Fold Carboxyl-terminal processing protease.
Amino acid sequence: MKLKKKYVPILFSLGIVFGIVLGSFLNFGTSSDTAFFSSNSKKEKLNKLIDYIDYEYVDTVNTDSIVEVTVNGILDNLDPHSTYIPPEELKEIEENMKGDFVGIGISFYPYQDSVAVIQAIEGGPSAKVGIQGGDRIVSADGIPLSGKAMDDDSLSKILKGRIDTSVNLKIKRQGEDELISYRVKRDVVPISSVIANYMLTDQLGYIKINRFAESTYDEFKKALKELKSQGATQLALDLRDNPGGYVSSAEAIADEFLEKNKLILFTKNKTGKINKTYSNRGGIFEDGEVFILINENSASASEIVAGALQDNDKGLIIGRRSFGKGLVQREMALGDGSAVRLTIARYYTPTGRSIQKPYELGNKDYFEDYLERYENGELRSADSIKVADSLKFKTPLGKVVYGGGGIIPDVFVPKNTDYEIEHLNYLLRSGYMRMFIFEELEKDRPYYNTLSIEKFQNEIIISDTIVEDFISYAQLRGINLRAKKYRDVYKRYLKATMAKQLFGNNAFEQMVNQDDAIIQKVVSISTN
């Protein structure tokens, strides 16, 4: 794989910027009090300027764009997490963070001038009526969907709609001569944030959360109960690469591990007002042993959970220092479908730590802090983590913890120093294989759709030929991959991606986690 080392961290920092922006949306409620929006000369000055441009400027100007530039300019002078969200982005973000949407419940792909079903979401409307992966949607309510190019947004508008409304689909299925008709009633379709839960050993369960949405706590509680029923007395809670989300979900999850009346976090605003949040019920895993997995991309609500448990001497934090985001935002709608997320307070862990890293040097340095960690060796050695004695705190049992930028783990696990394998893992996790695997499944779709997960694991073998085909597929798209050195990695991800399309995220995570260094460390600690 042709890749210069100096470019590798940049790929990751780009992903971090987007993720942490998403992860900064902590839901402390939206204030309806507008008393402080009184008229003043500063606002009148802005209004006069915009009106003057609108009416008198020599050329036609889109004043909406001027307003957006103005708003962004103001927020850029505050902090990295006070952000403006345009209308077209806000709707998508709210749907994602709500944890569900109304639709027919499929993942699809425009493929060869047709709409190909990649997977019918388990428990969703399409799965209930019998739609399968590989099906081609020929028409919806008489609207032809084949034989012409359509983008994802256009297709979504046709397939989505109001709850309890129906759409009539014509389906072409491999092996069937005639079109199949389905009437699908639109319903609420979950967007899972708990993307994996399974047993690592007879006693150790595993749960991976990729964001903290409205539905995350309910998903987590359901997954934890399932694992307990399977014998789990220990839990690995994977919050790596989790950018955060709603603080209420993080608080509720932390509560399940803590005894009643334990401090989870407190917030402090500009006037010094402090609000404290305590555990308020008997947690279903108070007596269990917990390991929290974090890395440099774990932020916001992820750090709230990790900090609450670390400061209450509950379990072990394993991995690498987290991102360092300890600011609280509140959303204010701007009346045109857009909104502002404004930082209104800082949050602190139970011992009094602020884990917010500095941002005085500007947003660019703030979000590229990852590159500095990469260069100073922190991602490879715990000794390279900078701590300040002035930010030293002690837990009730006397363990020393530090503030000043992120949660420092109790057990450090270095990042793989093989730059190429790091980039490869990032690339393959990003879904790049999706269309290649879809085409591979299409070679014998009726067979693959009859497989159980057990039969799939035992019977499906990724051959060297398939690896070579994928290498060629990538090369045609401008990506040169080394086949021999990383053949086993390709085979694992190819099979995992195939399992994802057939059985969902849980199967994918189980397969790609097989050689995961942090999970291996957790298993080792839990069995000793």
In short: The chain has four domains: 5-36+43-98, 102-190, 194-326+345-412, 419-526. Residues 1-8, 28-35 have pLDDT under 50 and may be disordered. The CA atoms of residues 138 and 144 lie 6 Å apart. The two ends are 39 Å apart (CA to CA).
